[in-house]
Amino acid sequence: MPQTADEPDAVAVRTWCSLALDALGREREAIDAINVYPVADGDTGTNLYLTVESAAAAVEAVFAAHETGTTVPSTADAVRAMAHGALIGARGNSGTILAQLLRGMAGVLAGGTGAERLRLALARAAASAREAVAHPVEGTVLTVADAAAAAAGRVPDGARATAVAQAAYEGARTALVQTPRQLAVLGRAGVVDAGGRGLVAVLGCLVEAVSGRAPERLHEAPAAPAPFPADGGDCPAADDPQGGPAFEVIYLLEADDEAVERLRTRLDRLGDSLVVVGGDGLWNVHVHVDDAGAAVEAGVEAGRPYRIRITHFAADRVHARPEPAQRAVVVVVPGDGLGGLCAEAGATTVLARPGEPPASGELVDAIRRAHAREVVLLPNDGDLRHTAAAAAEQARAAGIRVALIPTRAAVQGIAALAVHEPDRSFDEDVVAMTAAAGATRYAELAVAERQSWTMAGICQAGDILGLIDGDVAVIGEDVPTTARKVLDRMLAAGGELVTLVLGEDVPDTLADELEGHVREGYLAVDTVVYGGGHQCAPLLIGVE
What we know:
alpha/beta; six-stranded mixed β-sheet; 18 helices
């Protein structure tokens, strides 16, 4: 290519991205095949390819903006576009680290080019990538990047950029061969680090971009050549990635530096393989966790997460599982009494303990425990809508078809479960269950904890509050009187069936009293009563 070795410019950056994309496209399957760390999910080559694809597209967009002019973009514009494209398109652990490597290089090359700048750029890339990883491990792409930077640093002053790029490539190749001796899981599998192999390919393309000549390529090795003892020989011990967290969570995050530091600390407690890259208000967050919802919630507290991707690992670690059922229902219940009732109806239940709403991880576990291809999720609490949505998204990422019906109360869930028919089509079943839930008005009785203003007036501590559709409608002194007033308010708008769910501390005589009240005042209305067991509210009411 017509590019001088001493001054790699925007054209060289464009060429580098194009060559790297082609190289990773050729090697993607081979790299996927040797992916055993940190999770043996066989996607490192694919993730690297997608990351570079985004970087290349961003550079092409910069060039496209100059098509009507007579000049090409500046080197600074090209490298910044490359780094930004990689950041927003980074996939997986390896892609996120590569994005930080490119960002580190861009920060130096944006200020000038030439051999010395390239040497500094490689050093900064390796350092920034290592800083981005919460717990760096030797024998990975970080080790390969360090070796590339060190080799480039040994090139004599006055050498050309080509010599620096070539030295970095050779240093990376040498380090890659040693990775199975540094990381036990690689030694046992008889493979080099997949991310490191991808980086070697990218550096080889850098050599070609600045020199116009392709370097000697890394010979493709079989997936398991077993060059070291099967037990890893003298490799340092490493945790078995097969026993790691169940989910990979990745999202872009708009947040300031201080909030990101707090986020790092929180995510480090939640899981492993934590990599946070970026800066200037935009970050790419990657972590492996068991509670994906908590990882996303941490991002919400830090700033604005978006482009959230959640991948389920656990299915790859489970063997000899029974054939899934066609359809199941997962229900959140406020007490053990309703839990037993819903379980008898065939639902998988999640208990919402007083003051302890279930996390998204609990809901995902329940969806998996239901072991069905299709699942209907009933959260039965308006405050759980975001948690339930996150759980549904995680389950969908694992290949389970999930329909979330936004039930706001347990009595709506009971109504939905009553019309559930697993033999009809999934869509028809969901529509019928949604219609039944939506046709059910809900109420509950609660005890006021303190004096406060309500829509029904001022209540005092100890008063009985009757809440209809979430708002205080009645203030009373005792449960029976307040319950009758609530029923009258609800039935004034019509109804065919009243559902009463009694808490364990409510006397059984209350059910008879309220049934009689409905029978005497509303002749065409039926009443069903369930024992709720230990639940927060003394009484739940539904009117269909």
